[in-house]
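[worker-b] picked up task from shared queue
[worker-b] task type: protein-ligand structure
[worker-b] ligand name resolved to adenosine-5'-triphosphate; SMILES cross-checked against name lookup, match
[worker-b] sequence length check passed
[worker-b] input payload:
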Amino acid sequence: MITNHSQDGCIVFRDAAVARGGRIIWQHGDFAIPAGSVTAIVGTNGAGKTTMMKAELGLIPLAAGSLTVLGKPAGEANDRIGYVPQSYASDIDSNLTAEQSVLLGLTGTRFGIHPVTRAQKAKAHEAMAFTGIADKAKMRLSELSGGLRQRVAIAQALVSDPKLLMLDEPLANLDLASQRAVVHVLARLNQELGMTIQVVAHDLNMLLPILTGAVYLLDGHPHYAAMNQVLDSDLLTHLYGTRVQVITTPQGDMFVTPSADEPEGVEQDTHAPNEVAQFHHHHADASGATNTMGGAR
Ligand SMILES: Nc1ncnc2c1ncn2[C@@H]1O[C@H](COP(=O)(O)OP(=O)(O)OP(=O)(O)O)[C@@H](O)[C@H]1O
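[worker-b] inference finished, payload out:
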């Protein structure tokens, strides 16, 4: 099934729209993201991916429709959501230690002296152990690599035991090994703790083994589809505005790559509106497609 219209989805959009600066960014969002899923939000620069997460957190009001998260109107269940904002990993000036930073996930960002309880400290160490940075607890963020700082950020988001974890570009600017480490942490959170995960991502490849679906922002409309329906060369080509191929290796691993046969510099997307309508139609018919993804699942 492409769209789960039941109310027990973890995140439920009903004809939702958002505007920024008086301009509609996306509209007619009507889908439900299932609990227990790992979902990517994909779309070109400025399509409104970060805006979508902020709307889910109730930080940006809807211009139309409704948005329910964990059974409540957006913004009302934030104490059960862990959020890792964009560019956290580049916050290299911070003098906070990793442990102090993770504790902020429990004590908040209020200034002043906060007595930290033994239980809170234990919780922070549990979260750091989960993301593999327990031995870095006393190091300052400024002394850690971008990959380790990203794992501090995830530990901070985890420390309050969220049901839903949202991460905005968690793999940006990380080297391959660090990307892999972050993906491994996300896989364990989903598989061992049953956490629902949502990730804004430009490059799907590292996440493919753990993704169960994607929200794709196409022509000002958000859609949700299971992963086997998203991994379609024509759809991705339209989505990214450049020709894209989906390659499946004999082992079943999938890769999304720029098409090899296209000369550089002329990779404009030229799909007409009627073709776009076809993608939507096509994907409504594709529910029987086989998911050939390999990897961690
Ligand atoms: N504070 C703001 N006021 C007005 N417009 C804004 C504001 N923030 C973002 N926008 C506009 O909203 C649109 C969506 O922005 P958003 O950051 O959600 O896109 P995105 O898909 O996350 O982009 P990127 O891939 O570049 O991070 C953009 O056109 C942007 O210019």
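[worker-b] attaching auto-annotations
[worker-b] The first helix runs from residue 49 to 56.
[worker-b] releasing lock
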